[in-house]
Amino acid sequence: MSNRSNAPLVALLLALAVAAPAAGHEHAHHHAAPAPKKLTLNAGQPWPTDAPLRQAMGRIRQALAGELPQIHAQRLDAAGYAALARTVEAEVGNIVADCRLEPAADAQLHLIVADLLAGSRQMAGKKQRQAGAVKVVQALNNYAGYFADPGFSRLDH
After folding, report:
1. Is 119 helix (H, G, I), strand (E, B) or coil?
2. d(C-alpha 146, C-alpha 95), whole Å
3. Closest CA to 119 of 80, 156, 76, 88
4. 100-134 confidence digits (pLDDT tens)
5. At what angle do helices 103-124 and 78-98 cross, to 10 degrees?
6. CA distances from 22 to 17, 32, 88, 94, 147 (A)
7. Beta-carbon neighbour count of residue 104 at 10 Å?
8. With the C-alpha atoms ordered 52, 153, 63, 105, is the resulting torsion angle positive or negative?
9. Which residues have a Cβ under 8 Å from the Cβ of 75 and sit 6 or more positions away?
10. Which of 55, 64, 99, 139 could pair with 115 as two cysteines, CB 3.0-4.6 Å apart?
11. Are 139 and 119 in contact (CB under 8 A)?
12. pLDDT tens-digit profile of 11-55?
C-alpha cells in the first residue's frame, strides 16, 4: 500500500485520537487528560519525549529543512509539496503507532500533531501549499519550544 493511500487512514486515526474516546475505550495514544486548547510547558519545563517521537519529528524537520530554499523562492512544484505532505503524514502515523508519552505530555503533543496534519493537507492540496509548509514549520518550532528533544532545533523560515 502506498503512502498516498494511507493518508486518509492516518487522518482518520488522528481525528479519532484527538476526539474524546468513547466510554471504556482508549485510542492509540492513551491519554486520559482533557484536551488542552493551548500549548503549555510542564511546570515551566519542556515535556519529556521518547525515542520514536524524537526520530519521527527529526525526519519531518529534515524533510522540510531540505526544501525550505525552494519553498521560500516559490519554486517548489506540486509534486514536491505532495512528497513533503506524504512524509509528514507517514511520520505522524509513526508517532501515533509508536510514541508512548505520559498522558499530559501526550495531550500537548496532540496540538502539534493537529497542526502538522493541517499543514500537510494544505501542502497536498491545490491552493496555498506554501502556507501549509509554513504551518508545518510552525508546528516543528512549537515542538522545539515545548518538548525536550536535545537534538532538535527550530527552523528559520
Report:
1. helix
2. 17
3. 88
4. 999 999 999 999 999 999 999 999 999 999 999 99
5. 160
6. 11, 12, 27, 23, 28
7. 17
8. positive
9. none
10. 139
11. yes
12. 433 443 433 333 232 334 444 456 788 999 999 999 999 999 999
CB atoms within 10 A of CB 150: 8
| Residue 93 · residue 8 · CB < 8 Å | no
The cell for 26 is 482508549
* Calpha distance 82→14 (Å, rounded): 19
Looking up cell 506524504 gives 86
Q: Bridge-partner residues for 62, per DSSP?
A: none
The SS3 call for residue 127 is coil
CB atoms within 10 A of CB 132: 23
* Bridge partners for 147 per DSSP: 47
Q: What share of the chain is helix, strand, coil (3-state, %, to 5)?
A: 65, 5, 35
Per-residue CA distances from 143 to 56, 75, 82, 93, 113 (Å): 12, 27, 23, 17, 10
**Looking at the chain, how many residues does it have?**
157
The reported pTM is 0.79
